[in-house]
Amino acid sequence: MQEELSLYDPSLLLGLDFFRSPAGFNPRISAAVPGETWLKVRPLQTGDYNRGFLQILSQLTKVGDVSLTQFLNRFAQMRASGDYYVTVIVDTRHDKIIGSATLVLERKFIHGCGTRGRLEDVVVDDTYRGKQLGKLIVVTVTLLAEQLGCYKMSLDCKDKLIPFYKSIGYALEPGNANTMNIRYENGTISANRTGGNCKPDDTEPS
Ligand SMILES: CC(=O)SCCNC(=O)CCNC(=O)[C@H](O)C(C)(C)COP(=O)(O)OP(=O)(O)OC[C@H]1O[C@@H](n2cnc3c(N)ncnc32)[C@H](O)[C@@H]1OP(=O)(O)O
């Protein structure tokens, strides 16, 4: 059987210092020690297509009908770029993906050719929510961004999730907390359907 590829070096997750995060964990857990022997936090792997990775993303937004070939091509593009850190939580008892979050590195000329982190596509399987796993996966990629040299990390979220992200250390910056979009859909260019700093509903593409 062909060995699976990881999207990035898994050892990057082992040295993350969870004591640096403002998020409170009770009981204390980390990416290296996630609290249960059957939980594992690791980079996305090629075999995760068959572990329900796309199904879990469909709890976040529309995924569409993505074939294995499409998945592997996108995986290869992300891996070659070195700027995508899709990180997952696995329930090893069932060999199933139960959580995911993505750190994307945005390379800039400003800030002395600095790198900004973008937090994207955070989701925990609905049967596993309320057990600190959302916090665990977000803190993991947030600490990873710092380790990779980002000067800040940003995200877009629905208004109702502001308390969740605040509890992890994210803040709305006065005068600088709006998301604006223009959408390219069905051959037209259109304005965003709602204002404010949120995704309008659960099925809205991000
Ligand atoms: C940048 C983005 O991608 S935004 C998109 C976020 N994803 C989604 O909306 C997809 C659907 N939702 C989910 O997958 C999950 O509800 C998540 C990821 C938001 C949270 O996952 P969970 O595993 O339930 O979160 P977790 O158990 O770690 O909760 C951490 C804290 O946030 C709070 N919290 C969790 N979900 C919510 C919520 N929807 N609204 C408000 N507070 C919340 C919890 O009460 C908890 O508080 P505590 O630390 O004081 O006890």
UniProtKB/TrEMBL annotation:
| Matching InterPro entries | Acyl_CoA_acyltransferase, GNAT_dom, GNPNAT1-like
Q: Which family is it part of? A: Belongs to the acetyltransferase family. GNA1 subfamily.
* Family matches, as PROSITE patterns: GNAT
Q: Which pathway does the UniProt entry assign to this protein?
A: Nucleotide-sugar biosynthesis; UDP-N-acetyl-alpha-D-glucosamine biosynthesis; N-acetyl-alpha-D-glucosamine 1-phosphate from alpha-D-glucosamine 6-phosphate (route I): step 1/2
Checking CDD domains in the record gives: NAT_SF (cd04301)
EC number(s) recorded for this UniProt protein? 2.3.1.4
Q: Which UniProt keywords apply?
A: Acyltransferase, Transferase
> What's this protein's name?
Glucosamine 6-phosphate N-acetyltransferase
Q: Which reaction does it catalyse?
A: D-glucosamine 6-phosphate + acetyl-CoA = N-acetyl-D-glucosamine 6-phosphate + CoA + H(+)
Q: Which SUPFAM superfamilies match?
A: Acyl-CoA N-acyltransferases (Nat)
Give residue ranges for domain N-acetyltransferase: 39-196
Q: Name one GO biological process term.
A: UDP-N-acetylglucosamine biosynthetic process
Upper lineage is: Eukaryota, Metazoa, Ecdysozoa, Arthropoda, Hexapoda
Q: Report the domain of life of the source organism.
A: Eukaryota
Q: State the top-level EC class.
A: transferase
Q: Which organism is it from?
A: Anopheles sinensis (Mosquito)
Q: What GO molecular function annotation could you give as one example from this UniProt entry? A: glucosamine 6-phosphate N-acetyltransferase activity
